[in-house]
């Protein structure tokens, strides 16, 4: 059994997982737990009882891919790439994307840091999202619930990326190296404020950074810096549909009703407003 990658750990016994051969289609640990890749290339670690949380559907993931491919969040992807380059150490990048979605931001980061040796672990609860993330270079895509113990070894990652996804600071701290960084992206209170109410989307709560900092400090991750990013997006009706349907509201929005709402709005100038927060391990 070749020792190809020992940073990814077995979700059953927490021992290192290794590829059984050079095809990289089967993972095994010394306890003989085995995980085979789906035909689309991702691994599903949610065995047994699975999870109580809803995965993003195929239609939601398609909407997200269409919106992101249009470049509306490209400035955010660029900002994340700059921060990863700032905080990574040496000539390697070991990155864990907790709640990776389609891997859009991860792909931009890997492209921007392509001059170094890369090892990325993309985690998301949605099988449909991981089908896309599995196509990224230097990336293992795994269906997993990020509220649980992350399938990565202690102190194995330079950077943990957590973009519009559930926060698990205790696990982020465990997998980070002492000189690593956790980069968390949240929406600011004015994010998408022109269309949240008319499209039935979820709003962003006030005081997000204070609550986030307290939560992370309890797990020995100190707030290092926050960079704010705000700009206007020119969105047509298809963009607006995808924007609303790709997020959490997509679980309860009726596509037909949403189409009607979008048609009544027409093209819109919409505010994109993000907080990009960096947390570092405390000594």
UniProtKB/TrEMBL annotation:
S-adenosyl-L-methionine binds at residues 73, 102-103, 191. One of its GO terms (molecular function) is S-adenosylmethionine-dependent methyltransferase activity. Residues 96-182 form the Methyltransferase type domain. InterPro entries: Methyltransf_11, RlmA_N, rRNA_m1G-MeTrfase_A_prd, SAM-dependent_MTases_sf. Residues 9-46 form the 23S rRNA (guanine(745)-N(1))-methyltransferase N-terminal domain. The lineage of its organism: Bacteria, Bacillati, Actinomycetota, Actinomycetes, Micrococcales. Zn(2+) binds at residues 29, 33. GO terms for biological process: methylation. Keywords: Metal-binding, Methyltransferase, S-adenosyl-L-methionine, Transferase, Zinc. It comes from the Bacteria. This is Methyltransferase domain-containing protein.
